[in-house]
Write a structure and sequence with these properties.
The complex is a heterotrimer of chains A (278), B (237) and C (241).
Chain A: H1 10-18, H2 26-35, E1 45-46, E2 50-54, E3 58-64, E4 67-69, E5 72-75, E6 81-85, E7 88-95, H3 96-117, H4 123-136, E8 143-151, E9 154-160, E10 166-168, E11 171-174, H5 178-188, H6 195-212, E12 220-226, E13 230-238
Antiparallel strand pairs in A: 1-7, 2-3, 2-11, 3-12, 4-5, 6-7, 7-8, 8-9, 9-10, 12-13
Chain B: H1 2-6, E1 37-38, E2 42-47, E3 50-56, E4 59-61, E5 64-67, E6 73-77, E7 80-87, H2 88-109, H3 115-128, E8 135-143, E9 147-153, E10 160-161, E11 164-167, H4 175-181, H5 188-205, E12 213-219, E13 223-228
Antiparallel strand pairs in B: 1-7, 2-3, 2-11, 3-12, 4-5, 6-7, 7-8, 8-9, 9-10, 12-13
Helix pairs in contact in B: 2-3
Chain C: H1 19-22, E1 40-45, E2 50-55, E3 58-60, E4 63-66, E5 72-76, E6 79-85, H2 87-108, H3 114-127, E7 135-142, E8 148-153, E9 159-162, E10 164-168, H4 171-181, H5 196-213, E11 220-227, E12 230-237
Antiparallel strand pairs in C: 1-2, 1-10, 2-11, 3-4, 5-6, 6-7, 7-8, 8-9, 11-12
Classes of the chains: A alpha+beta (278), B alpha+beta (237), C alpha+beta (241).
Active site (chain A): 48
Subcellular location (chain A): Nucleus
Pfam families (chain A): Proteasome
Chain lengths: 278, 237, 241
């Protein structure tokens, strides 16, 4: 096991308190890549369809549930809608690890803020903190987000790009299926829709992504955020892709796999006559 | 801002290896995502008693239009605004830093800051970080010292005061039009019409500019915003 | 962002002497004559029959061109070919093979045998050794002895007669199932071999499973059964996402 390095001076202490990512291996990796053809590891990126709409006093977000790793489906029913605060949720597209950690970090920051101020977090606070962080990492943290929430100032919907630029919009879509979803939203969005109509619209937009974009698939998750209730995730709101055929296989009889060797090791030995001394 | 830049990941220079002949999407942890940039048309002109700023509303990522109704004219102070072109992330970050510093400065000053100060802050930021930024800015506004003013801050971080300016990918199509038709001492209405017309002309020729024409008239007394919808542009096509 | 900020502080920029500058590989942009249109096919030989299955999705990148495009072409009354890879090359190859087989029939007054077609396909592919057809073929039929025959090819004409095979985007997923269910690899207890209906059922199941995990496989599947009675085709639905 590697020894834990003791901080040598105040600079080390400062460094350890600063937080953030460690880039200590970047130069080494670049050198290795130049010497021998080593491929850096590939990240799980979810080719995704996510979208969101803002209505009179409600925000609705939606996402598909396929997560891919190249041409393979890594997860058929993953969750792309992330909790940030009771009244703020976001849908994420891009690098899975970045999304998970960024949204978890934001969730903890918002909870601390809520406890410190005793007030409900505002959507613009989340947006500013996310965009500052993403800008700092210059697009290397691959988070494309559709962020929605309802706060004291009303409903808000934002899209945030990996480089840290933000847009405030009445309806948005992101991810590889965003074009398919946007086609539906552009055709049918109207700010006077009811909540039910809104849910139907976002689900239809996500379905367009699921069926027409190979990076997106499986089910539709929807999140409705209202002023009174906060956010509610409707997990698998629609399941348009159930398996259509399954053969009945005879089970493998016991003993199909040969047992090469059998060995039973006693991991715990029980001593019967132990005398306790003081 | 400076701290941000000093902390930038060293991994930026990482050489990327994509599998040879891989037909699938190059999917690499060390690769930054594609930037959102404002292929833009910005037009700003001085008139008697103020300035007029004008911009299109298209924000694009490559081929895709990420936002068709964006605001590229951002507020920096009560009577000072900035037109942004280049990387959306860079110019938004730059603007929020200047907004912050100028806000503090105004409180210390106890009165309205000058356009000169705002433009200078933008210049310092843009110049000191020029290797990392893609930002073309036009700062304009009104103050009691010098009246309406326009400062152009192009890519390298130079600052020049000009009577009228155009920037962004669409500006090349209309510079001749502006040189031919700009007159010092126009009335507010004349100037607004001139600037809107120039923006509309650029939109009609430049593929990366489009959507609507947003305009802002800044005078001593007020700031007036106007929008011309994309199907009502003042050009005959 | 805490403490005092000073304007004008330069960040440490990489110098031209730094290692990563020296190794910056040149970026080459060039047009590729090849595309991968995805899809999966498989063939299983029985004692006196053969089963071929393939999906019908035609895609490129993240988009679907069509949901109903067959990968399988009938070459003779007892031989079919299934090709994955690039669709335009597959079309060209199939057209070429069919033309050659018409000429064969006129010259020999009978249809070519599966073994003869297998050899011809190999030479046809190797003919384009240095600008290959980007196709990965499975040739299936019933041979002159009435036995089921499956041939597997690479893109430049290396081929082999095998009891079962698969090619295309989901082939890695298919092969493991066929190894277990047909070849019964690493199984010590003898279980009865699958009959004709069982193999057809297995092919349907395998394609449905691949459709779950391979993004380029889906929409619908088709199964060709070739036996003494000739070629019969059945279709079934796959997932559309």
């Amino acid at each position: 096991m590697a020894a834990v390095e003791e901080p040598q001076d105040y600079l080390d202490v400062l460094q350890s308190h600063r937080g953030g990512f460690s880039f200590e291996n970047c130069k080494r990796n670049a050198y290795l890549a130049s010497q021998v053809a080593i491929k850096p590891p590939t990240a799980m990126k979810s080719g995704t369809t996510i979208c969101g709409i803002q209505l009179k006093d409600v925000v609705i977000l939606a996402a598909d549930t396929r997560s891919t790793c190249g041409p393979m489906v890594a997860d058929k029913n993953c969750e792309k809608l992330h909790f940030i605060a009771k009244n703020v949720y976001c849908a994420g597209a891009g690098t899975a690890a970045d999304l998970q950690h960024t949204t978890e970090m934001m969730e903890s920051q918002m909870e601390l803020l809520r406890m410190a101020t005793g007030t409900q977090p505002r959507v613009c606070t989340v947006v500013r903190r996310l965009s500052s962080m993403l800008f700092k990492y210059q697009g290397y943290v691959g988070c494309a987000l559709v962020l929605g929430g309802v706060d004291v100032t009303g409903p808000h919907l934002f899209q945030i790009y990996p480089h840290g630029s933000t847009d405030k919009l009445p309806f948005t879509s992101m991810g590889s299926g965003s074009l398919a979803a946007m086609a539906i939203l552009e055709a049918e969005y109207n700010e006077n829709l009811s909540v039910e109509e809104g849910k139907k619209l976002v689900a239809k937009a996500i379905r367009a992504g699921i069926f027409n974009d190979l990076g997106s698939g499986s089910n539709v998750d929807v999140c409705v955020i209202t002023k009174d209730v906060g956010g509610t995730i409707l997990r698998n709101f629609e399941k348009p892709n159930e398996r259509k055929f399954r053969a009945k296989h005879a089970a493998f009889p016991i003993g199909t796999t040969p047992i090469m060797k059998q060995e039973i090791t006693k991991l715990v030995s029980v001593e019967e006559d132990v005398v306790m001394r003081d | 801002m400076m701290d941000f830049m000093a902390q930038r990941p060293v991994g930026q220079e990482f050489v990327r290896h994509v599998e040879d002949g891989c037909p699938y999407r190059a999917d690499d942890v060390m690769k930054p995502e594609q930037a959102v940039s404002t292929g833009t048309t910005l037009v700003v002109a001085e008139f008697d008693g103020g300035v007029v700023m004008c911009a299109d509303t298209r924000t694009s990522t490559g081929q895709y239009c990420a936002n068709r109704a964006s605001r590229k004219i951002s507020k920096v102070h009560d009577r000072i605004f900035v037109c942004r072109s280049g990387s959306a992330a860079d110019t938004q970050a730059l603007t929020s830093f200047v907004l912050h510093y100028l806000g503090q400065h105004a409180v210390e000053l106890g009165k309205q800051p000058t356009v000169n100060t705002a433009a200078n802050l933008f210049k310092i930021m843009a110049y000191n970080n020029k290797d990392h930024l893609l930002a073309g800015l036009i700062v304009a506004g009104y103050d009691d010292k010098k009246g309406g003013q326009i400062y152009s801050i192009p890519l390298g971080g130079t600052r020049v005061r000009v009577p009228y300016a155009a920037d962004g990918s669409g500006s090349g199509y209309i510079k001749g039009f502006m040189d031919a038709n700009y007159r010092p001492g126009m009335s507010k209405a004349e100037c607004l019409e001139f600037v809107q017309k120039a923006t509309a002309l650029a939109i009609s020729r430049d593929g990366s500019s489009g959507g609507m024409v947003r305009s802002l008239v800044i005078t001593k007394d007020k700031v007036e915003e106007a929008v011309i919808e994309g199907n009502k542009l003042p050009v005959d096509l | 962002m805490n403490g005092a900020h000073r304007f004008g502080s330069k960040c440490d920029r990489p110098k031209a002497t730094d290692i990563h500058f020296k190794m910056q590989a040149p970026v080459e942009h060039r047009w590729s004559p090849y595309a991968d249109n995805g899809g999966t096919c498989l063939g299983v030989a029985g004692e006196n029959f053969v089963v071929v299955a393939a999906d019908t999705r035609l895609s490129q990148g993240y988009s679907i061109h069509t949901r109903n495009c067959s990968k399988v072409t009938r070459l003779t009354d007892k031989c079919v070919i299934a090709s994955c890879g690039m669709k335009s090359d597959a079309i060209t190859l199939h057209k070429h093979l069919k033309a050659r087989l018409v000429m064969y029939e006129h010259q020999h007054r009978r249809q070519a045998s599966v073994t003869a077609i297998a050899q011809m396909l190999s030479t046809t592919l190797y003919y384009k050794r240095f600008f290959p057809y980007y196709t990965f073929n499975v040739l299936c039929g019933v041979d002159d002895e009435g036995k089921g025959a499956v041939y597997h090819y690479d893109a430049i004409g290396s081929f082999e007669r095998v009891p079962y095979t698969t090619s295309g985007s989901g082939s890695a997923l298919v092969m493991s199932v066929l190894d277990a269910q047909i070849d019964k690899e690493n199984q010590t207890i003898d279980t009865p071999a699958l009959d004709k209906a069982g193999i057809v059922e297995l092919c349907k199941d395998v394609l449905s499973s691949v459709g779950e995990r391979d993004i380029y496989t889906g929409d619908s599947g088709e199964i060709f059964l070739i036996d003494a009675a000739g070629i019969s085709k059945t279709e079934f639905d796959l997932k559309l996402d």
